[in-house]
Amino acid sequence: MNVEEFREYCLSKKGTSDDFPFDEHTLCLRVMGKIFAITGLDNIPFKVNLKCEPDYAVELREQYPEIQPGWHMNKAHWNTVEFEGGLGDALLKQLIDHSYEQVVKTLKKAQKEELAQL
Fold first, then answer.
1. Which domains does the chain carry?
2. 41: which strand partners?
3. Does the pLDDT of residue 80 top 90, yes or no?
4. Residue 42 in 3-state DSSP?
5. DSSP category for residue 86
6. pLDDT tens-place string over residues 29-65
7. Per the CB 3.0–4.6 Å rule, which of 29, 61, 69, 106 could disulfide with 10?
């Protein structure tokens, strides 16, 4: 999955948006204003920080060398995932979905209700 496919998949989810809040190279994907994925457009190879349930994060890191503790993030809750490795699009989409869901769980009740209406 390349950066364009990644961005398109993320933005196909309900309540999502993207922006560059830090600089012109750091793309953030958000659900209802909260970040669920971050990538540097100048990263070679293409890598993405994705939110993850802590126990599942450890399990993934032990199973896949392409998944490491989140770079510049809370290592318990974020993984850095190499998208140009051998993980395959199905797993990458599953990891994006998991990250999205982890953030949706933390939304306030009003935000969850608004998201449900989209």
1. 3-117 (3.90.1150.30)
2. none
3. yes
4. coil
5. S
6. 999 999 999 999 988 899 999 999 999 999 999 999 9
7. 29
Residue 43 CA to residue 52 CA, distance in Å, equals 21
Q: Write down the H helix ranges in 1-118.
A: 3-11, 54-63, 89-105, 109-117
pLDDT at residue 72, rounded to an integer:
86
The two three-digit tokens of residue 42, written as one number: 């100048």
Query: What's residue 89's pLDDT?
Result: 96
Other Cβ atoms less than 10 A from the Cβ of 102: the count is 18
Token pair 């600089």 in the structure block, residue? 23
Specify the DSSP element, H or E, that contains 14. Answer: none
Block residue for tokens 């933390």: 106
Beta carbons of 49 and 39 less than 8 angstroms apart: yes
Instruction: Give pTM, 2 decimals.
Output: 0.95
- Token pair, residue 41, equals 């457009």
Contacts of 17 by beta carbon, 8 Å cutoff, 6+ apart: 11, 29, 30, 33
